[in-house]
């Protein structure tokens, strides 16, 4: 069973979602199914079928979250240090073509959000960065073509 790296913040978010699904969503869908059953013939009852479909989604997501939480390897980023890019690092990159600076934090798959500048550890850019140091240049193939970056800063916050 492979471990899933994630930050403490990402782990807490998964636990919160699981708690919400079990304590709020699950009881609500059970009530919806009971109400729909009271309306009679279930074969043509759209409310019943929608509620059952929602229940199936919730149960699937609960199982998925429980699996991820059980395999989580929570990494305390504040205890990390160094100049090498690794999980949890906040990396400042300089686009070698446009001279534009960008800052990304490398996080677990379930935590990634490109709008918040949080890169998944499995993304092509993060994979290219892992193990590199300040001053190193990397080249990444993107949908828009090849991009070159220089690592100007590595920090752990």
TrEMBL record:
Residues 4-74 form the Transcription elongation factor GreA/GreB N-terminal domain. PROSITE patterns: GREAB_1, GREAB_2. InterPro entries: GreA/GreB_C_sf, TF_GreA/GreB_CS, Tscrpt_elong_fac_GreA, Tscrpt_elong_fac_GreA/B, Tscrpt_elong_fac_GreA/B_C, Tscrpt_elong_fac_GreA/B_fam, Tscrpt_elong_fac_GreA/B_N, Tscrpt_elong_fac_GreA/B_N_sf. It holds the Pfam family GreA_GreB. GO terms for molecular function: DNA binding; RNA polymerase binding; translation elongation factor activity. Residues 83-155 form the Transcription elongation factor GreA/GreB C-terminal domain. One of its GO terms (biological process) is regulation of DNA-templated transcription elongation. Keywords: DNA-binding, Elongation factor, Protein biosynthesis, Transcription, Transcription regulation. HAMAP family: GreA_GreB (MF_00105). Belongs to the GreA/GreB family. NCBIfam families: greA, PRK00226.1-2, PRK00226.1-4, PRK00226.1-5. Necessary for efficient RNA polymerase transcription elongation past template-encoded arresting sites. The arresting sites in DNA have the property of trapping a certain fraction of elongating RNA polymerases that pass through, resulting in locked ternary complexes. Cleavage of the nascent transcript by cleavage factors such as GreA or GreB allows the resumption of elongation from the new 3'terminus. GreA releases sequences of 2 to 3 nucleotides. This is Transcription elongation factor GreA. It comes from Hypericibacter adhaerens.
């Amino acid at each position: 069973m492979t471990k899933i790296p994630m930050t403490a913040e990402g782990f807490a978010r998964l636990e919160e979602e699981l708690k919400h699904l079990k304590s709020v969503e699950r009881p609500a869908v059970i009530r919806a199914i009971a109400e729909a059953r009271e309306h009679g013939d279930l074969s043509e009852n759209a409310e019943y079928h929608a509620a059952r479909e929602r229940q199936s989604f919730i149960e699937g997501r609960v199982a998925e979250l429980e699996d991820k939480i059980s395999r989580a390897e929570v990494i305390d980023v504040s205890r990390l240090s160094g100049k090498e890019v690794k999980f949890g690092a906040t990396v400042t990159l300089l686009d070698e073509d446009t001279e534009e600076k960008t800052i990304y934090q490398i996080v677990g798959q379930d935590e990634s959000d490109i709008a918040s500048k949080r890169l998944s550890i499995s993304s092509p850019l993060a994979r290219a960065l892992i193990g590199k140091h300040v001053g190193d240049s990397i080249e990444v193939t993107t949908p828009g073509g090849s991009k070159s970056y220089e690592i100007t800063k590595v920090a752990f916050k």
